[in-house]
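Q: what does this look like with BIS(adenosine)-5'-pentaphosphate bound?
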Amino acid sequence: MRLVLLGPPSAGKGTQASMLSTRFDLLHLATGDLLREAVANGSSLGKKAKKYMDTGALVPDAIVIGLLEGKMKSTQSQTGFVLDGFPRNLDQAKQLEEFTDIDLVLSIEVNPGLLLERATGRRVCRTCGAVYHLRFNPPKAPGVCDKDGGELYLRDDDNEEVVKKRLRTYEEQTKPIIQHYESTGKLKRIEGDGSIDEVQNRLLAAIVEQWPQLDGLAHGPIHKKAAAPASSRPAMQGPRPQAQAQGQRQQGGQQQGGGRRRKRHRGRHRGRYNGPGPRQQGNN
Ligand code: AP5
């Protein structure tokens, strides 16, 4: 299963991708997370990327694609992957086609009026990357991750001014790829308003439409292996981004359904992705 999740900033791509990756044992590949990890590590690549991220612009393709390819090549998956936040423009979509095939593109479409609040109310665990929302998914104790007690922080680019710029960037550069995928017949539009579980059920219905044999897995309890505790993603270990270290500690509210939690992998290789998982899986 090789999935792409599209959608505007804070549409719920990461939340939903995390739930799908747990249910179907997929590799969750989030370019935003890879970039934030590079920033937190203080690498020169991370420093370059941060300048773009802080203004709501896209990071240059070469940086993003290098990070993504490295992760895909270094990570084994027997069942496939879900891409979250990539591709972001037509060039990225075309380059993606050069190193892997995609089976299904799910575009999460949310009433634009909801997006700003989803972004500015988001809080992320510095240790494991779990995502909360002050209003929609508050943690049990303010500012503290339910899963591991890690500190919850506000992303540098989740302030109103940058969120508005990210929304414009999405309209201008990312939205056109919806048409691109529509023309390939691989696109399904998913209504993103409503609760996290409601949106997840719509995504699952679209997946079952594509792979009817997954009906039991989509509606039944989560597979034992997939349901095992995810390895903690040391999302923000290493030097803290300056603004966060200076006290952007924010109060949070409760772990969201499905808990968005991302895993971390390293490595960097070039060439077309031929990993055993997606390739063995074929289109079934
Ligand atoms: P990235 O991290 O990818 O940001 P984004 O696309 O703006 O997406 P978000 O992470 O903001 O939101 P999401 O859709 O994952 O929503 P979430 O599930 O967290 O990228 C950041 C930056 O990195 C970019 O601006 C760019 O500079 C750079 N970048 C990344 N990829 C790049 C690429 N490919 N090329 C170039 N540059 C790149 O949910 C949001 C909040 O809402 C959470 O609090 C959640 O709890 C809540 N929520 C989710 N669903 C619901 C619901 N149904 N109801 C109520 N609340 C909900």
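The first strand starts at residue 2 and ends at 6. Strands lie at 2-6, 27-30, 81-84, 104-109, 122-125, 131-133, 152-153, 187-191.
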